[in-house]
Amino acid sequence: MGKRILIVRVGAMGDVLHAMPAVAGLRARMPDAEIGWVIEPRWSALLQDASGAMPLVDRVHLAPTKAWAKSPLAPATVKDVLRLRAELRACKYDVAVDLQGSIRSAVIARMSGASVVIGSEDPREKQSRWFYTSRVKTVSAHVIDQAVEIVRALVPAVCAGEVSLPVDAAAERWCRILLAADARKIVVIAPGAGWGAKQWPAERYGAVAGDLVERGYRVLVNAVPGGDLLAAAVVTASEGRAEAVECTLPQLIAMMRRAVLFLGGDTGPLHLADALGVPLVGVFGPTDPARNGPYPGRSTGLHPRFVVLRDGASVTDHGRYKEAEAGLLRISVADVSRAALQLLEGREQG
What letter would DSSP give residue 159? Predict the structure, then answer.
């Protein structure tokens, strides 16, 4: 029997996607290993479809840590934590790898019962180091390469592998129905961001959407189910030519697979597009694309796969400010439209 390995990376979407190439590389080097992954329920569709099929790992362990944090001492929370602990220990993992670097993820890795717990020498939350039996000093710029460095503590020859995401049958049917009546090529826009400083104005996304519709593309705006005011603002700014599409994560994956281009900032859908190999324009402000941007290690073929726009005066700052960063606002509609059309035209001519 192969080694039993537990990966802990509970969220968020982009962070899970950033961890996946390292695990894919590990799988390629250790095909007989049994690999489990601890993840927030809302992101589990990145690892398994509705039928339970998992292209990357052998087991998925659900850890609703966001809900736990809201009521940490509630009997239901204690019961669920004990449920996860028992579930992990029953799997008899040999090694746990914390690719998140928070105290919460480090505790989960340790409570798995694995005799070896691996994490970063410089984790996001310093106290996490106390729970590791082995610490790895990472030197790479990009977070994907940093995850690979940590996984190399198990297998030194590991490289970032190609990620396969689940293909959900129901989401595929939904997407075929959505797109069936329109033969135009699809561009997906995700205007949201984790905080305001990273968010390019909705009105500008709408203006770019209008430019692309005039060129014959169908522009779909990723919208949060239940009413999304930001997506609605993009549609309004496009003079109704873009379409807001409320979708679940499996449906977003299905829709993104069919896109010829993605536009957005440093947010989960951008990293999803990147993982699927969709050409993209990334609009960056206070976060550094050398660390968090599209991964340059993926094959690009004959034509550029992405364009990252960032003002030269932008300063890396993870402060969760509400207002858009000044450098981000210096990126114009013309800048983004030009980059989008260059990518589209280059691919079509090739």
Answer: -
